[in-house]
5-methyltetrahydropteroyltriglutamate--homocysteine methyltransferase
Amino acid sequence: MNEIQVLLKTFRLLEAVSQNRLRAVNHTLHCTTMALTHTLGFPRVGERRELKFALESYWQGATALDTLERVVADLCEQRWRRQADAGCSWVTSGDFACYDLMLDHAAMFGALPRRFGLDPSRFGLADSFALARGTPEQPALEMTKWFDTNYHYLVPELEPGQTFSLHASRYLAQLNAARRAGHPVKAVLIGPVTFLRLSKCAVPDQKLSLLPALLEVYAQLLDKLRHEGIEWVQIDEPVLAGDLEPEWQQALRTAYHRLQSERPRLLLATYFGSVLPHLALLTTLPVDGLHIDVVRAPEQLQPIAAALPATSVLSVGIVDGRNVWRCDLRRALHTLRPLQVERGERLWLAPSCSLLHVPYSLDSETRLGSQVRSWLAFAYEKLDELEVLRRALVEGEDSVTDALTQSDTAVVSRQQSRLVHNDYVAKRQRAIDPSMSTRPSPFDARIARQRAALSLPLLPTTTIGSFPQTPGIRAARAAYKRHELNAFDYLQAMRAEIAHAIREQERLGLDVLVHGEPERNDMVEYFAEHLFGFAITEQGWVQSYGSRCVKPPILYGDIWRPDPITVDTTRYAQSLTDKPVKGMLTGPVTMLQWSFVRDDQPREQTARQLALAIRDEVGDLEKAGIRLVQIDEPAFREGLPLRRDDWPHYLAWAVDAFKLASCGVRDETQIHTHMCYSEFNDILPAIAALDADVITIETSRSNMELLDGFAAYAYPNEIGPGVYDIHAPRVPSLDEMQRLLERACQVVPPQRLWVNPDCGLKTRRWPETVAALGSMVQAARTMRARLQEQGVDQPA
Ligand SMILES: CN1c2c(nc(N)[nH]c2=O)NC[C@@H]1CNc1ccc(C(=O)N[C@@H](CCC(=O)N[C@@H](CCC(=O)N[C@@H](CCC(=O)O)C(=O)O)C(=O)O)C(=O)O)cc1
Ligand SMILES: N[C@@H](CCS)C(=O)O
Ligand SMILES: [Zn+2]
């Protein structure tokens, strides 16, 4: 670079800095006069899933880390620009993660599991993937649901006496990138109490003792942010929407008192439910503002607004961050206006929670019917709604007449639409009677008949349903959707995959086979495509974990099933083998939980409609000669309300929906269910009440810990604890599986045990799948022989 170039560059830099200062000054002036808007978080994966493709390409070794970093920088830049363009008073920084935000916080606080042997001060993005995906030597961190969402976070592993140290360069670099782009920035952090509560400690009782040390790194970070000139930090404590034992309430007090000096202003963000039970605590915390979710818990607004000091900011989560329905703007204004009078610029408007859980934009949708489309708002549209609300409050409703009229029209159209209300469904629902939710005989009688009909060995081996979704399968489906492959050829291609899966399973020696689900893009979306009352998006991707995304279907109307959905594929698979083939369906609670569902009727009513449709499918499979049907309910636990007081009601209707779907079959037909990535031990009575003949569960990442609960509860029916983790590419050794199986045999009578992986194999490749299943079958055979030697070969 010559001298002139250097001078020019310096000049441009100075110019940029002074422009940013000017913007910041304007921003401060602007903020003192009116309600502000902001978002708690934003989708990360990219409008066209750019992050997913960049990650997967890097993991495959096809691109370098630099390329991934460039994609990340572009994505961050786009998200901030979009927030700024929509009029947000701050852009949010700190909510982006390449794989997961809890993982990034653990790394930022130097809390790396010792078993990986990583140095926190030299920790980079590549290391974070080792924790997230495992290495040949070390299994990945556990992954579990983020509250009641379909997003999965990685569980930090802490140990007694854990030390923490601050490594915030990546976090700060992102924040400074936002500022360099000229945006006023609000930083966001997962709060210390939520971070600690969601982490795993080798000695659980000692977890809280780690708080003081953890607070020191938070304090250092906040101090750094203050030095950086950050005015506001949003600090997320969603644990406040759940029950908190007195010691955890005390932890909140300790935390925020410790963090009260040398820091920017703090907005304590709560979401996913009411924080009213903690109101007394909240009003005493030394923070500068509070965000509350008034979509999930509208009842908390008035009491909180009344109790919160007038000097505090109240951020009202008025636009639904968890669902895709357009906001009823007129109603929202009615709610907000008194607050605007009381609080002025200390009223902030926001989505109820981070927008991570909704798709990017309706602009990408070309095939939604115009009526349904008019009822919807995705992340971009939700930001626009906030801006309309802000303008209506500040400049008057006349300034946004068109937007208000459109909102009114959508409200009325949804209430009256024939797309939503179907008399046939209403009539069927009225005809439901309790006998439909009970099997003809109790489990003991049923299982005897099933054993006679199926003649399975001790420790029968099976899989959870899906086999690898290969690039070939995906390409065939993509070509079919683009009309480049005709329906007949697509069907043939899927049949070839089914035949291949059956051949492989026979070769491996599995006892109960599956067709492999090649025709399913996703276990929820596929069924939604075949049911009336659902709309499917083209680009409505939402991150589920890491690079994996789902497109939750939109359940807008009464549900009914025009035709059988899975009978052809299952019957075809059964025609290829003498071994029993298990039919594979998604249960009503999971269909509900993983879709964007109606907010105009209780969830339980929607669940009943779904259950009726699935019941019809189960009946048709039975008629087609299928002897086992698995009804997957991986979201059963996730649907549980965050507060225990609300559990009984949910569990009653959720169990009822499953039973309505599953109980219409003969004793000889064996009903399986499957659940994964959840803690089940606190809902075992409800799981037992499902009365599925067999339940397969994820257990291997937690070393079969989950099974102890089933054993302690004396779970009465058959169980298949997963003997290997399928979410990481690592192929477990035969020895590992054998150890897990031994452990399972010690806690559950072997006569009631099945042997299977943790979950479906759709994310795996065939070579790993064959290798792992081969070992699994071998482990089962070895154990079977050992049990037979001990004389444990008769049903219990
Ligand atoms: C069991 N899990 C599930 C959850 N939620 C669901 N709704 N479904 C689940 O199965 N929650 C808990 C766990 C989460 N686990 C997973 C596991 C795997 C995925 C996953 O693999 N997602 C895929 C997307 C799946 C899909 O819908 N595929 C479509 C479209 C494929 C596609 O991208 N097509 C390209 C063209 C491809 C080509 O030409 O080859 C395109 O359209 O541009 C399909 O198969 O048709 C993912 O890729 O992330 C999710 C959750
Ligand atoms: N049958 C599904 C269950 C996933 S939870 C599958 O195997 O992919
Ligand atoms: Zn599963």
User: Anything to note?
Assistant: The mean pLDDT is 94. The longest helix spans residues 3-31. Residues 445-789 form a domain with the TIM Barrel fold (CATH 3.20.20.210).
